[in-house]
Amino acid sequence: MLYDVVIIGAGPAGLSAGLYAARARLNTLIIEKDVAGGQIVTTEEVANYPGSIENATGPSLVARMVEQAESFGAKRTTDTIKSVDFSGKIKVLKGEKADYETKTVIIATGATPKKIGCPGEKELTGRGVSYCATCDGAFFEDLEVFVVGGGDAAVEEAMFLTKFARKVTIIHRRDSLRAAKSIQEKAFANEKIHFMWDTVITELRGDELLESMVVKNLKTGEEKEIFADENDGTFGVFVFVGYDPATQLFEGIINMEKGYIITDDKMATNIPGVFAAGDNRVKPLRQVVTATSDGAIAATQAEKYIEENIFE
């Protein structure tokens, strides 16, 4: 089958693109390697998305987006794309389950959480180390947790974790937060939230569970080991230090900047018929609202591209 549009990724950008493309009566397929929603499904509260005044959660917002895209005829499938051929007018995507031919492609692969990069992190992921407060916060009921990072996401997730943990300490490599002032004010006013400034984690230790961590003060050079309370036996480390764009598949094919796809204001890449939308492209703000906007623009431009070109 030859599709009009194949969208890689079913986060807000991909679902928005699917909605607009299908509504334009384009034969639309959304391919997602995992569950729909991308990063937003790990978000407890989406307070800054216009119209979400009824305390919408990430999962509830995604569920609506999926339903809306499918109601207009967008098809969805689960597959992992292993390689692409963008050399011809018809684009070919080779997946683990099938190959897909399409007139246009919208890359909406998003980004993945960055790691601390210290010894023990990989081994203890899921055993005390997490990148998703919504997913794992409840496991740390009445325990102590540490949040690594100083941006909006780190501070917001730290506040969310106070619902479960008895104490939340934000570890930041600088001496001040980067989060928005309104978010900082809420954090400083929360009695459960504490701060460890100018500090990084250099090692995470434990056998079956996270039992201790080594931290280093960047100003003094002093290192110390912090142990779990002996009555608890473990504690949590939640990492929110940014994201890496999921664009490795397109390296050497599409123009990028530090791993992010370069597009114009029409979401077009350097390859005709290939567009990008969402957190994987070069942009000043990566939020749900900008992802959905990108998806809408990409889909309407894909429609225009199809109208202006002849496909045999």
Automatic annotation (TrEMBL):
Requisite cofactors: FAD
Enzyme Commission designation: 1.8.1.9
Gene3D superfamilies: FAD/NAD(P)-binding domain
InterPro entries, per the entry: FAD/NAD-bd_sf, FAD/NAD-binding_dom, Ferredoxin-NADP_redctase_2, Pyr_nucl-diS_OxRdtase_2_AS, Thioredox_Rdtase
Record keywords: Disulfide bond, FAD, Flavoprotein, NADP, Oxidoreductase, Redox-active center
Superkingdom of the source species: Bacteria
Cellular component aspect of the GO annotation: cytoplasm
Catalytically driven reaction(s): [thioredoxin]-dithiol + NADP(+) = [thioredoxin]-disulfide + NADPH + H(+)
GO molecular function: thioredoxin-disulfide reductase (NADPH) activity
Ranges of residues in domain FAD/NAD(P)-binding: 3-295
Keyword Oxidoreductase in annotation: yes
Pfam family, one: Pyr_redox_2
Coiled-coil regions listed: none
GO BP terms in the entry: removal of superoxide radicals
Record flagged with keyword Transit peptide: no
Co-factor note (free text): Binds 1 FAD per subunit.
Oligomeric form and interacting partners: Homodimer.
Family: Belongs to the class-II pyridine nucleotide-disulfide oxidoreductase family.
Protein name as it appears in the record: Thioredoxin reductase
UniProt source species: Soehngenia longivitae
